[in-house]
């Protein structure tokens, strides 16, 4: 595989771009650092391996980020006997005494066996090279190398990327922006990609009286209002969809701020497309605003893809240079 793969895919792996116009927003390989979190681990004799693995499978969900982490680590003592260190769950998920009580009830260890929990620092993000994987495994906790995840992720993303559809909705957002007379000519469109249907659209309406009416927030509110009316009309009060924007695509002229990026995350969107970066308040780009890249945070319970249009054919209305998005 070369940096530029155009035989089958219109992908530039060094720039993370599709068709030289759409940049997938993800951490730079050269600057990637481990995002560590504390896990509870327990030390056990190898004969309890099957029991503890059944316990973990039944009591804790198999989160995607655990796929690159080895659950079990062999540790040899001074007398050349080895025991197993087993990762149980993130420390924040459960207090130690509760977990110990659960383990005592599950394991067939002797009644006088003293279960002791320790903490281990574990990388939640995937290393992008075999050398980095080996380094993190030695420094923190053993990891599994299954090839460069960046390449795998980008190719899977590309397979679901419909260039014509993306460009059509970004053009629509630009038209909304260019026709707006608001101080902040920012426009957003939310689309159900399965039905190829616009679910909401709005331009920015923030003002000194209400600075919270960003176009993204207005769109989410529209979808919430429509769902409320639907349930009232049909007498459907069941929580059939707890997440109003589940796997929807969001097209917006400007990079969302922290408030909007978090609202999109809580709404469980699938993908975000934007044109102009927001260097001061943006929450998506690696060098924007808080530099947090909210859409990819390992400490939050959802992730979504984000793309920036980096071509020159689509241009939304320009913002006053004195305004910060």
TrEMBL record:
One of its GO terms (molecular function) is tRNA-specific adenosine-34 deaminase activity. Residues 164-287 form the CMP/dCMP-type deaminase domain. Keywords: tRNA processing. Pfam families: dCMP_cyt_deam_1. InterPro entries: CMP_dCMP_dom, Cytidine_deaminase-like. One of its GO terms (cellular component) is cytoplasm. It comes from the Eukaryota. One of its GO terms (biological process) is tRNA processing. PANTHER family: CYTOSINE DEAMINASE FAMILY MEMBER, INACTIVE TRNA-SPECIFIC ADENOSINE DEAMINASE-LIKE PROTEIN 3-RELATED. Belongs to the cytidine and deoxycytidylate deaminase family. ADAT3 subfamily. This is DEBR0S2_18426g1_1.
């Amino acid at each position: 595989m070369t940096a530029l793969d155009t035989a089958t895919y219109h992908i530039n792996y060094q720039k993370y771009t599709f068709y030289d116009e759409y940049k997938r927003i993800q951490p730079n390989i050269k600057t990637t650092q481990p995002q560590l979190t504390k896990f509870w681990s327990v030390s056990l004799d190898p004969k309890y391996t099957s029991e503890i693995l059944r316990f973990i499978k039944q009591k804790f969900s198999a989160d995607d980020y655990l796929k690159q982490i080895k659950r079990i680590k062999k540790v040899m003592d001074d007398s050349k006997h080895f025991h197993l260190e087993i990762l149980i769950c993130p420390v924040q998920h459960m207090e130690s005494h509760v977990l110990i009580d659960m383990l005592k009830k599950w394991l067939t260890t002797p009644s006088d066996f003293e279960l002791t929990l320790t903490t281990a620092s574990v990388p939640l993000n995937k290393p992008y090279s075999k050398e980095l994987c080996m380094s993190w495994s030695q420094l923190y906790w053993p990891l599994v190398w299954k090839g460069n995840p960046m390449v795998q992720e980008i190719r899977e993303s590309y397979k679901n990327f419909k260039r014509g559809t993306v460009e059509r909705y970004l053009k629509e957002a630009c038209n909304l922006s260019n026709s707006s007379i608001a101080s902040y000519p920012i426009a957003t469109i939310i689309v159900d990609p399965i039905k190829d249907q616009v679910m909401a659209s709005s331009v920015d309406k923030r003002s000194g009286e209400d600075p919270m009416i960003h176009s993204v927030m207005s769109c989410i509110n529209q979808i919430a209002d429509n769902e409320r009316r639907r349930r009232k009309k049909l007498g459907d009060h069941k929580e059939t969809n707890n997440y109003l924007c589940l796997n929807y695509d969001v097209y917006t002229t400007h990079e969302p701020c922290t408030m909007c990026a978090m609202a999109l995350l809580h709404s469980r969107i699938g993908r975000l497309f934007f044109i102009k970066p927001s260097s001061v308040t943006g929450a998506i780009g690696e060098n924007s605003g808080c530099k947090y890249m909210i859409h990819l945070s390992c400490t939050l319970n959802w992730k979504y893809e984000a793309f920036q249009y980096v071509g020159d054919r689509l241009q939304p209305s320009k913002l006053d240079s004195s305004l910060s998005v």
